[in-house]
């Protein structure tokens, strides 16, 4: 939704192979189908990612590096605000993990 979906739509319109990294399979698949229909680009894919989980970030990065021959653009757009204080299963504060640590780790893992 929001800025991320708009960016994905624009990239797909430019005929880019576009991977949507989403926490929710249902919402992500709905966005993939909408973007494919609006752009005519079949190369819009869904991969699950929760940037608040470093294990999820590592699994996502590993899959992208294994499945994709190249990565030209990375848009780190995920973020949360206003959540109650919570600690992730990895012992990190949830908002900090989601907004900073996860995207930082993802970027560094994808740099190779």
UniProtKB/TrEMBL annotation:
Keywords: Oxidoreductase. Gene3D superfamilies: NAD(P)-binding Rossmann-like Domain. It comes from the Eukaryota. Coiled coil: none annotated. The keyword Metal-binding does not apply. GO terms for molecular function: oxidoreductase activity. Belongs to the short-chain dehydrogenases/reductases (SDR) family. This is RDH12 dehydrogenase. It comes from Anthoscopus minutus (Southern penduline-tit). The lineage of its organism: Eukaryota, Metazoa, Chordata, Craniata, Vertebrata. The gene is Rdh12_0.
